[in-house]
């Protein structure tokens, strides 16, 4: 239910967003996120599914590989480190390579600061190590 008591309608953007989200992040991640969803965060989850995944990530104007690089660089540059591991794991589905990520973080170092890039690199290395251990 929406805050006004009316049922939230699932839109084409929502359906597209959920398809893209699953494609990029994987079913297991999305299933965990969906299971954790509550009435409190339902409007927010709908917003990001429609906006981020159903609009931005669904656009075919640039590749998903390029989107991964941009997303990782922006997360690092703005200090939003919590989502970097999730997007490093997504690179396996988007085609962004370790070299691509390295290049993105080098841009971060020059334009947003070495400490931010350094921390992002640390998180990427940890995530890739975990991925290799679990494969």
UniProtKB/TrEMBL annotation:
Residues 44-125 form the Carboxymuconolactone decarboxylase-like domain. It comes from the Bacteria. InterPro entries: 4CMD/NDH-1_regulator (IPR052512), AhpD-like (IPR029032), CMD-like (IPR003779), Decarb_PcaC (IPR012788). GO terms for molecular function: peroxiredoxin activity. Pfam families: CMD. PANTHER family: 4-CARBOXYMUCONOLACTONE DECARBOXYLASE FAMILY PROTEIN, CARBOXYMUCONOLACTONE DECARBOXYLASE-LIKE DOMAIN-CONTAINING PROTEIN. NCBIfam families: decarb_PcaC. This is 4-carboxymuconolactone decarboxylase. It comes from Puniceibacterium sediminis.
């Amino acid at each position: 239910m929406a805050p006004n008591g009316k049922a939230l309608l699932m839109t084409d953007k929502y359906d597209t967003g959920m398809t893209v989200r699953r494609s990029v992040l994987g079913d297991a991640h999305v299933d965990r996120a969906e299971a954790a969803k509550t009435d409190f965060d339902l409007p927010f989850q709908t917003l990001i599914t429609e906006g981020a995944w159903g609009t931005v990530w669904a656009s075919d104007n640039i590749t998903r590989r390029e989107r991964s690089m941009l997303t990782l660089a922006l997360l690092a540059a703005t200090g939003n480190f919590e989502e970097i591991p999730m997007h490093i794991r997504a690179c396996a589905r988007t085609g962004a390579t370790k070299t691509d990520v390295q290049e993105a973080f080098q841009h971060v170092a020059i334009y947003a600061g070495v400490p931010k890039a350094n921390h992002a690199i640390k998180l990427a290395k940890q995530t890739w190590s975990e991925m290799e251990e679990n494969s």
